[in-house]
């Protein structure tokens, strides 16, 4: 029978796995949701990235960042959607996890500074919480149940 210390060691080893699964599935879903919504990629209209960006521009922390998106809303929308998909897949499968976490943190940071910036009190905006959730994965990577681990073991064998 396992001792408390053994259970504690196992729990510590797998502690980031639920976070990886949550963030991976969430970002895959967010990317696919955008990619399957034709209204999202429009410059104007209800539910479009263009309308959303124009709606948050004046209340964002960095209006110039929103202006960059408004130069080509469709291209920006595709960049966000494919970025979320890549980040989600990398995180879920543990492939280039630190790079995926950096991407997720940057997406979350940009959304916090633009879309969620005007939410008061700040803790009601979800993008800041996502930004903070990416930091443990950025620091620790995916040491268990990951393709990163498989690749690291292959390099050690050679």
Write the SSE topology.
Elements: H1 4-13, H2 17-35, H3 49-56, H4 63-71, H5 73-93, H6 97-114, H7 126-140, H8 147-157
Helix pairs in contact: 2-5, 3-4, 5-6, 6-7
Structure description:
It is a single chain. With 158 residues, the chain is an all-alpha fold. Helix content is 70%, strand content 0%. The longest helix has 21 residues. It is elongated and about 60 Å long.
Portion of residues in helices?
over 70%
| SS-based class | mainly alpha
Largest sheet: none
SSE sequence, one letter per element: HHHHHHHH
Proportion of residues in extended strands: under 5%
What coarse outline follows from CA principal-axis ratios?
elongated
Q: What is Rg? A: 18 Å
Report the count of strand segments: 0
Mean pLDDT: 95
* Uncertain runs: none
Total helix count? 8
N-end to C-end Cα span: 37 Å
What key phrases describe this protein's structure?
single chain, 158 residues, mainly alpha, 8 helices
What is this entry, summarized?
By secondary structure, the protein is an all-alpha fold. It contains 8 helices and no strands.
